């Protein structure tokens, strides 16, 4: 069992760096991806990366956006359920492959289907969103940022 005692607060230690990353988060929140899809992307990457803080945060963001408990529960096994649309499936596949670049590739088939579904702007926005959540995960995991059910992405963005 891992000792989950928090280490340092990256928010306090490097506020300028966190502000820069927060700008990417704001861009994603205001971009071409809808709120529910963005929360699913953030949740799936956070699950893969073992980021408890972000997994709780983005599951709550999804609930606030009206996401169902069944779908939230099934995000980690999305391929095995009928509950995700073609667009969501492409986004989740893109998210998984970008999150695990060492073992995955963006083959031509996925690229072409993602481009057809999202367009150039949307696919770029999707890629920025995945890169951003992976950056947040890489801050929260090593510093053991504890999950807090009261936090929401919107409130964090406004406070920073």
Describe this structure as you would to a colleague.
This protein is an all-alpha fold and 160 residues long. The chain has one domain (33-149): AhpD-like. It is 68% helix and 0% strand. The protein has helices spanning 10-13, 15-30, 35-49, 52-64, 69-74, 86-99, 108-140, 153-159. The model has no long low-confidence stretch (mean pLDDT 91).
Please give the structural blueprint.
Blueprint: H1 10-13, H2 15-30, H3 35-49, H4 52-64, H5 69-74, H6 86-99, H7 108-140, H8 153-159
Helix pairs in contact: 2-7, 3-4, 3-6, 3-7, 6-7
Produce a short descriptive summary.
The protein has about 160 residues and is an all-alpha fold. It has helices at about 10-15, 15-30, 35-50, 50-65, 70-75, 85-100, 110-140, 155-160. α3 packs across α7 (about 110-140) and α6 (about 85-100) packs across α7.
């Amino acid at each position: 069992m891992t000792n989950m005692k928090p280490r340092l607060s990256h928010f306090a230690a490097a506020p300028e760096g966190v502000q820069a990353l927060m700008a990417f988060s704001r861009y994603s929140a205001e971009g071409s991806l809808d709120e529910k899809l963005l929360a699913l992307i953030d949740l799936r990457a956070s699950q893969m990366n073992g980021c408890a803080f972000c997994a709780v945060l983005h599951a709550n963001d999804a609930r606030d956006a009206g996401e169902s408990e069944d779908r939230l529960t099934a995000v980690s096994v999305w391929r095995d359920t009928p509950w995700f649309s073609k667009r969501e499936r492409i986004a989740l596949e893109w998210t998984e492959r970008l999150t695990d670049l060492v073992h995955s590739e963006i083959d031509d088939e996925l690229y072409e289907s993602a481009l057809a579904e999202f367009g150039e702007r949307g696919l770029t926005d999707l890629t920025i969103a995945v890169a951003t959540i992976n950056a947040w995960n890489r801050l929260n995991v090593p510093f053991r940022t504890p999950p807090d059910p009261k936090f929401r992405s919107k409130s964090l963005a406004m406070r920073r």
